[in-house]
Amino acid sequence: MYHSKILVTLRQSILDPQGKAVEHGVHSLGYDSVRNVRIGKFVELNVDAASREEAEKITREVSEKLLANPVMEDFSITVEEKK
Amino acid sequence: MYHSKILVTLRQSILDPQGKAVEHGVHSLGYDSVRNVRIGKFVELNVDAASREEAEKITREVSEKLLANPVMEDFSITVEEKK
After folding, report:
1. Minimum Cα–Cα distance from A19: chain B residue
2. Is residue B67 classed as helix, strand or coil in its secondary structure?
3. Within 13 Å and on the Cβ side, how many CA atoms surround B80?
């Protein structure tokens, strides 16, 4: 059993209105030193695979097909064996 | 200038209907080996602080007050100096 973590982030060239809204909220709390807030997704899942390579392949395919929008988003994955 | 990354995750005891929906989507793509999908938030921000300690303090306070719901969510932060 493997445990995968996927970070999905908006590409730098894409505007992030949700991040802007959070940034305004942060400033209204008095934290003026905080800038460039950007919001992404974090997905965790377990993969029942025979090897780390297979688990990585499945995680990558699922990320490409379902979790990330390739036009607007990048993703990075880490896979660890689960005790 | 420091760059902070915050992962906000639902506590294990809290049901994650969004994760369940994604899991159904993953299964309908044919990836039956994927289980326990859980969705969290990933927030990146810059902090203009004099030291790493100050940047961590600000990041932690912003996470507690605004980014995470302490009743339902946990968060973890990492802070790196930005070149």
Report:
1. B43
2. helix
3. 5
Question: Can you tell me the distance from the alpha carbon of A30 to that of A18, in angstroms, rounded to the nearest whole number?
Answer: 19
Nearest to B66 among A26, A48, A61 (CB): A26
Mutate to test the interface with A, among B42, B52, B61, B76 (most CBs of A within 10 A): B42
Domains contained in chain A, CATH given: 2-81 (3.30.1280.10)
Task: Say if pTM beats, i.e. exceeds, 0.90.
Answer: yes
CB contact under 8 A, A45 and B23: yes
Question: Reading across the β-sheet that carries A73-81, which strands appear in turn?
Answer: A73-81, A2-10, A34-47, B34-47, B2-10, B73-81
Instruction: Record the tokens describing residue B48, joined without a space.
Output: 């203009």
> pLDDT tens across A19-35, in order?
999 999 999 999 999 99
Q: Which of B31, B48, B67 sits opposite A58 (nearest CB)?
A: B31
